[in-house]
Write a structure and sequence with these properties.
Distance between the termini: 17 Å
Shape: globular
Length: about 575
């Protein structure tokens, strides 16, 4: 079908164009055993899985992508394709086709050997966004912008090992908001706008019918939340991690270790940013530098499913700052790791020039989460999440003046997925509530915050994000969404109401906020609507666009201040 090229006898001037053509234009090339693959957050196959599982009337044992090839197949076990609607059957077949790609393509110009396979794709996208008011945040997050050019490269060995890297020509998402601009694009039209953190995804992965292993850089998402997940979400641009999963039909164990460098100086906000003694103490009297790569998140997760309808997930983790990789946190059968280890670290003390103690904090912190999902009817599911960084009762707060304030978050959602005529149809509703001190602990190094550098090497500006929900802490969120996808056309409408307190993405630890509720003080209220359209013009070419608006009451937490804005965007994406 694709012909064979005998490059060995060609002259150099002929061989090079042929190799370039093969490198960029050939479709996926598979030789040897059935390739082992991973499905990462954002992959359209995950939406296909949601539709099939919901129509099948089952709960997810553990919706914690990346999912391995064998884990995805196991999710489909017990679901009868004949009982599904036509759109769900098509997606069922599409999942299987992508998990076991046809091995019939010849491999022109590529070496073949037993047990080896290779897949090379070309991705390209051209995107532009516009907003009428720069005081109104973008409706679409800046890190959702697709790269201008990408070259996903997969190497498969013996059907059980995958090496993946995706070289990119991409714009640094930092420039969508710095400085505030009315327009944004994924074209890095200045040298400083190139994202030098590339590649954002590169890993080695292996697995089999009951296990998976992944080492490298990828995105993560633990839970079925539509607006985000509370413990580990795909809010950061990427994670550097090692992850091990052991799974069966109704039980799964996961271990995640992620290295998360931190620069504390720019993270510190009010009321400490203007406190010169505090900043002087931070740099001079602690014995600690303001940045370190020795910061690790250790997370264990147990998932169990009962009667194929009810799933429960428990996660327990530790953020250890200023510490090398530690074996004791890898013990899966020990709980309260942080409780038994926090005294092993020196206190993070900030003193002024007169040795007066300004602040004392811990270098490690903990996180605990509980996930529930109940498929109470075919097509329908209820799900919820609770996450805790600090559990502080009123009794403790009254009797122990040094008791840290509570840091908790809650998510409740309902989801429907099915078919409407020949369209795949889904809708959801979610409520999210977070305390002011969720993700923020008594030192920046113990806090559940991710960081990377921007590409502007002159200023070395930093980019921060929560490990958990992208909407942040100190807020209440209510969201509704509906989507429909046909053979070529897909539509989605999302509505949300958010009340956000003063506590944003900054380390502003202050126990005076103990008694305040979330959203604290004078919250700002954001009402947002977003309409998205996608049309597949050709099998490899997709056109998409979005439009929406935002209305903000008490903007900037100033009573009576109102802001409103309109946003629109267009994108053409090519994938071969």
């Amino acid at each position: 079908m694709y012909g064979m090229y005998g490059a060995r006898g060609l002259k150099t001037r002929t061989r090079l164009p042929l190799l370039a053509a093969l490198f960029f234009l050939v479709p996926p090339l598979f030789t040897g055993a059935d390739p082992f693959t991973m499905i990462s957050p954002g992959d359209p196959l995950l939406e296909d899985l949601r539709l099939v599982v919901r129509e099948g009337g089952k709960s997810f044992l553990s919706l914690t992508p990346p999912l391995s090839r064998d884990e995805a197949r196991q999710i489909l076990e017990g679901i009868d394709p004949a009982s599904l609607s036509l759109p769900a059957r098509e997606r069922y077949r599409r999942i299987l086709d992508n998990l076991a790609p046809a091995l019939t393509y010849e491999s022109p110009g590529f070496a073949e050997s037993s047990g080896f396979a290779a897949a090379i794709h070309l991705k390209a996208a051209l995107e532009g966004r516009f907003r009428a008011n720069t005081a109104v945040p973008w409706l679409k997050k800046d890190n959702t912008s697709q790269a201008l050019l990408g070259l996903p490269i997969h190497l498969f060995f013996a059907g059980a090992l995958e090496l993946f890297a995706e070289p990119l020509a991409a714009a640094d998402p930092w420039y969508y908001n710095h400085p505030p601009s009315s327009w944004g694009t994924n074209v890095p039209w200045e040298a400083q706008r190139f994202d030098l953190n590339m590649p954002l995804r590169a890993f080695a992965a292996a697995g089999g019918p009951w296990w998976s292993f992944q080492l490298g850089r990828d995105t993560l998402s633990f839970g079925p939340g539509r607006t985000g997940n509370l413990a580990v979400s795909n809010n950061p641009d990427y994670y550097d991690f090692v992850r091990v999963g052991l799974f069966s039909q109704n039980f799964k164990y996961s271990l995640l270790v992620s290295q998360t460098p931190m620069n504390a100086e720019k993270l510190i906000g009010e009321p400490f940013k203007s406190n010169q003694e505090f900043m002087r103490g931070l740099r001079e009297t602690t014995g600690y530098d303001v940045e370190t790569p020795h910061r690790y998140l250790y997370l264990h997760r147990f998932d169990a499913r009962f009667f194929t309808k009810l799933s429960i997930g428990l996660s327990e983790g530790v953020m250890a700052g200023y510490s090398p990789l530690e074996l004791r946190y890898l013990n899966p059968l020990m709980i309260f790791h942080s409780f038994f280890s926090w005294k092993d670290y020196p206190s993070w003390e900030i003193k002024d020039n007169n040795s007066n103690l300004l602040h004392e904090g811990d270098l490690n912190g903990s996180i605990f989460s509980l996930d529930l999902e109940w498929a109470f009817l075919p097509h329908w599911a209820l799900y919820g999440q609770i996450v805790i960084n600090e559990f502080s009762t009123p009794y403790e707060q009254e009797r122990f003046p040094d008791q840290p304030p509570p840091g908790m978050g809650y998510l409740l959602g309902a989801e429907y997925a099915g078919a409407l005529a020949n369209w795949a149809f889904s809708c959801y509703a979610e409520l999210v509530y977070t305390d002011p001190y969720l993700y923020i602990l008594s030192s920046p190094f113990a806090s559940m915050i991710w960081m990377r550098r921007s590409s502007d090497l002159g200023t070395k500006d930093l980019r921060y994000a929560y490990f958990g929900h992208g909407e942040g802490r100190d807020m209440f969120l209510a969201a509704l969404g509906v989507s429909a996808a046909g053979e070529k056309l897909a539509l989605a409408l999302d509505l949300s109401l958010k009340r956000q307190g003063e506590h944003g993405l900054a380390w502003d630890w202050d126990k005076r906020y103990n008694s305040q509720n979330s959203p604290s003080g004078n919250p700002e209220t954001l009402i947002r609507t977003l309409l998205s359209v996608e049309y597949r013009l050709l099998p490899s070419l997709t056109l998409s666009g979005h439009a929406g608006g935002t209305l903000i009451f008490d903007a900037g937490h100033v009573r009576g201040n109102r802001e409103y804005g309109f946003e629109a965007g267009l994108k053409a994406a090519y994938y071969y």
